[in-house]
Amino acid sequence: MKFVELSSSEFEKASNNFPGSSFYQSYAWTKIKELTGWKHYFVGVLRDNKLVAISLIIGKKVYFDKYLYYAPRGVLLDYNDTELLSFFTKEIKKFLIKKKGVVLKIDPFIEYQKHDNYGNVIGDFCNRQVIDNLIKLGYKHHGFTTGYTDEIQLRWSYYLDINRSIEDIKKGMDQRCRRCIRKYEKYPLELVILGNDDDISDFKEVMQSTANRQNHFDRSLEYYKNLNNLLGDRSLLTIIYLDRNKYLKECTGDKLYDIVMNDKRKKIPISAGVFIFDKDKLNYVYGGTHKEYMPLMAQYKMQMEMIKLAMERGLPIYDFGGISGNFTPGSENYGVYEFKRGFGGNVLEYIGEFDLILDKFGYYIYDIGYKLYRNTKKVIAKILKR
To answer: Is the previous residue joined to 336 through a cis bond, with omega within 30 degrees of 0?
Structure first.
């Protein structure tokens, strides 16, 4: 076997043939990450002149001349092929040590156990062997985490099988979800997909409003513009607008009537979302809704319209994105899971995040600094909640 560095075109050509490939493992994603200071490499392993492992590796300086490296939702290879996994690990370690790395983080799209929509384990499937293979090679597992933790990506997600009719999908929804769909159909709401040259200030307004309400930092206007432009046809920035004049004419007596009356814009932005296509699914990546307009249920219209779009494109999966993995009613962020569960579907649990330590002392310094940074952010968030 031979470890190789790949060109962007070589990587792009190969990545579509690997299970688990996603927009995170793409040349376009490197252009997004470059805007926030990440550099990148494309690497692979040849066996009999055939690529059997590939990965985008991005890196960011964490202190002095030391770097954190990350294979976003990678590495793409067969984790049960222990010979290949061992060879890649040995070679990537040598490669990144030369690049002054302290750690390589990986969090592949590999399912751990199968769950129903309530989070209960179903069947006997378990990928424990993959975790054991990584640990034997020196990877440090972050554990079977739940909640919005310090990992780069959430370990839990929620998805819907859409390889069927819309009628069948609606049958799988809970009563509350179907009721919310009937409710939004009463209002003059319109979905708009923003083009590259469109003004996205309304989009940013909704996202910022949501971030303020939930006490987290929103991404910048420039970030969203670049996401829309650099990912091309793979990404969609969307807004649900309320037609003010139609609403005032058709919805007299509605409890939001006075609020809409006082908002003088002809088209009022209600909900916003970012969606990104992969070869086998549509991903709901970011989203938000103005709190005062939540009773319009525009957030349900957003999901239904995008589910239909994914079906039109022949995709089998609609991925609602991350959930906490805590299925106890009333737990923190339970409402996010409850909203997504309403559409039917299943919980998806990944094997989690792993650290391959490249420099023990450097990693120790990085770990202390990162924990201090995260704890400071949590303190600020608590202060903002008061």
So the answer is: no
CB-count burial class (<10 Å; 0-12, 13-18, 19+) for 160: buried
Q: What's the distance, CA 342 to chain centroid?
A: 19
Within 155-207, strands assigned E span 156-161, 189-194
Residue 147 has pLDDT above 90, yes or no: no
Q: What's the Cα-to-Cα distance from 109 to each of 81, 105, 112, 283, rounded to whole Å?
A: 16, 13, 10, 13
Superfamily (CATH H level) for 163-315: Gcn5-related N-acetyltransferase (GNAT) (3.40.630.30)
Separation of CA 122 from chain center: 24
Taking the C-alpha atoms of residue 112 and residue 132, their distance in angstroms, rounded to an integer, is: 12
CATH class of 2-107+353-385: alpha beta
For the entire predicted model, the pTM comes to 0.93
- What are 315's two structure tokens? 């995709």
pLDDT of 386 above 80: no
